[in-house]
Design brief:
Helices cover 43% and strands 25% of the residues. It is α+β, with helices and mostly antiparallel strands and 621 residues long. Helix 6 packs across helix 11, helix 7 packs parallel to helix 14 and helix 10 crosses helix 15. The longest helix has 36 residues. About 4% of the residues have low confidence.
Length: 621
């Protein structure tokens, strides 16, 4: 090998080593990836835990010959499940509790809720709204007895009733599922449903379990996993609003923070927890402790886009156990629509399930928007008309601010000739002098250059509040207006045979109208406030905004586009009325009178003058 070849190989080796060093993920990145993998494993392990337990029993049974006696087979079950051996086999039966609002299906296999239906609502496909159904949910107590891991999910409970279906519309109904654990010991799952209620009381009643569980047992684990079903037309939006929420015991509520690593999020709640909710855009399943949960670990995993569930939520919950011979652990299920006033009546800060924005913005919605909206709801039946009236109300409410903005724009417009003279007097190389002269003119004339911006900024909280209110308002769900069949989702007048990145595969007419009206009002505002010294790129940015909104809002709630469209229409009408009422000549004369008055320099102006002197610039006064 010649010298050049050897040098080449060495350089290649150095480059490979350097590349591996620089592309090696950081410690933080590796930890984040590990958390993601743990979360995936957690979901898979939860789904397979019970089947593996049963498989283990079957494998042990397979080791016995076909001539094995029933006593030998029973011994295998005892070795695997101890006091719960008799519950390893049985017949799965289904039972129902229902009232006017909900219908809950139970299975004797696991003694758990099998499905939950909200009877007053339908999916976008006009099917019943099932919060969960079948094997896509897991709900299991897990604990150790005699060094044996027990999961109730695959054990057969004995129903303590012969009634398959019980209707609670006329009175409270109760279903008891019993899991025997040897002589004098059992676990009852007691479900109680009251009339006209979204609540299902759930009590874990333990009898003689102090003899079965270990003496040092102070907690019992409750594993809860649920695949979240698509209920709304826009699957991506449905997934966007779906999250795990919770409330700490005697403290504040919160929600699972989204992760930047792929599609998994996990959070450990190390202090006492009052409730955990699996939230969708318009519906939630909540598990609340009558006392508290000791701790919990919550997680969310988003599957591939073509998967049936939009997300998979899970919660590992630790429940306190005092080791008494008779002990009840009280819990409550809520199968609820995310309707603000319904949740407020239930208390426990369940209103946090309705996403109304940050604290200050949520106050506007809670104390202002919602009350007005519901008052109009009681008077007017059409929700599109309600939105228009709400729009008019808010436009009139902020009209004094809008009027000040219009007047400020008119003042800037009549000063344009004088600003043109300043721009001619000072070239591009005398930016400091130009700025000083312009500010001096504004000061003498009594014009605030930010006068048109501040009123607009003060209106922003209402704008943002309504932006959060409409997509979260279940009242708009499946409510038609003009060509829109559902104001809670996008209105499509044309489905495209292809997908436009960032836009979608459909055309929303209300969004088109909103963008067009925004262009008109933008042009009118710029004409009203035009100056000879425009901010570079401002005009392009202002005209780009409607185009960007067209892309952003194409898949958003049609109710939101309806509001902004009519808001722009009324803004245009207000500007036309104010423009005709403004006497520009009178405003100019007033400004000229102000310029004749002696004006004391502001501290800001004095600092500008001082800075100019330090640079050796003599400012003409």
């Amino acid at each position: 090998m010649d010298k050049k070849s050897l040098i080449g190989l060495v350089l290649m080796g150095v480059l490979l080593v350097a590349y591996s060093i620089f592309t090696k993920p950081s410690k933080e990145a590796m930890e984040r990836n590990q958390r993601y993998n743990d979360s995936i494993s957690r979901v898979e392990a939860q789904k397979n835990f019970e089947s593996q337990q049963k498989k283990s029993l079957n494998d042990s049974t397979a080791q016995i010959t076909a001539a094995a006696t029933p006593e030998e087979l029973n011994q295998i079950k005892v070795n695997q499940l101890g006091a719960f051996a008799d519950a390893s086999t049985g017949e799965e039966k289904f039972f129902f509790l229902e009232n006017k609002k909900i219908k809950v299906k139970f299975t004797s296999k696991g003694g758990r809720p099998y499905s939950a239906e909200l009877k007053d609502y339908k999916t976008f496909e006009e099917k019943p709204v099932l919060l969960f159904d079948g094997e896509t949910t897991h709900f299991s107590l897990q604990f150790f007895t005699q060094n044996k891991a027990i999961a109730t999910q695959n054990l057969y409970f004995l129903p303590q009733t012969q009634e398959i279906s019980q209707d609670a519309q006329s009175g409270t109904k109760t279903l008891v599922m019993r899991l025997p654990a040897g002589e004098g010991s059992w676990i009852d799952f007691v479900y109680t449903l009251e009339p006209d209620s979204y609540k299902l009381s759930y009590t874990i009643r333990m009898q003689g379990m102090d003899k079965v569980l270990g003496k040092n047992t102070s907690m019992i684990d409750l594993d809860w996993l649920m695949d979240i079903r698509q209920q709304e037309k826009w699957k991506k939006g449905d997934a966007q609003y779906a999250t795990v929420q919770y409330k700490f015991y005697q403290s504040e509520a919160g929600k699972l923070k989204p992760s930047t690593i792929k599609a998994a999020s996990t959070e450990n709640l190390t202090t006492k927890v009052e409730w955990i909710g699996f939230k969708q855009q318009f519906f939630s399943t909540v598990l609340m402790a009558n006392n508290y949960m000791t701790s919990a670990r919550i997680s969310s995993v988003t599957p591939e886009e073509d998967a049936v569930p939009i997300k998979t939520f899970s919660a590992e919950i630790s429940l306190p156990f005092e080791g008494k011979s008779q002990e009840d652990i009280g819990l409550t299920f809520y199968f609820v629509p995310n309707h603000y006033k319904t949740l407020k009546a239930e208390g426990h800060d369940l209103t946090n399930l309705v996403d109304l924005g940050w604290k200050f913005i949520s106050w506007i919605n809670k104390w202002f928007v919602i009350n007005i909206f519901h008052w109009l709801e009681g008077v007017i039946g059409n929700y599109g008309i309600i939105i228009i009236i709400l729009t008019i109300f808010f436009k009139l409410l902020v009209f004094p601010l809008s009027y000040k903005s219009f007047i400020s724009g008119a003042k800037m417009k009549v000063l344009k000739p004088q600003i043109d003279e300043i721009n001619k007097k000072f070239g591009a190389d005398k930016a400091m002098e130009k700025q000083q002269a312009t500010m001096a003119l504004y000061k003498k004339a009594g014009v605030n250059p930010l006068g048109g911006c501040l009123p607009t900024l003060l209106q922003m909280p209402i704008w943002i509040a309504l932006f959060r209110f409409f997509p979260s308002s279940i009242e708009l769900r499946h409510q038609p207006f003009l060509w829109a069949s559902d104001l809670s989702t996008y209105d499509s007048i044309l489905n495209l045979p292809f997908t436009i990145p960032g836009y979608g595969a459909h055309i929303s007419l209300f969004t088109l109208l909103m963008a067009a009206s925004m262009l008109v009002t933008t042009k009118m505002s710029m004409d009203q406030t035009q100056t000879a010294q425009p901010v570079p790129g401002m005009k392009v940015m202002m005209y780009m905004m409607p185009v960007m909104m067209l892309f952003w809002f194409n898949s958003y709630a049609a109710g939101l586009s309806v509001y902004y469209f009519f808001s722009n229409v009324f803004s245009y009408l207000q500007q036309m009325i104010v423009k005709r009422s403004i006497d520009e000549e009178k405003i100019l004369n007033k400004l000229k009178e102000n310029q004749k008055k002696t004006v004391k320099k502001s501290k800001f102006q004095e600092r500008l003058d001082q800075l100019a002197k330090e640079r050796g610039i003599q400012t003409k006064r």
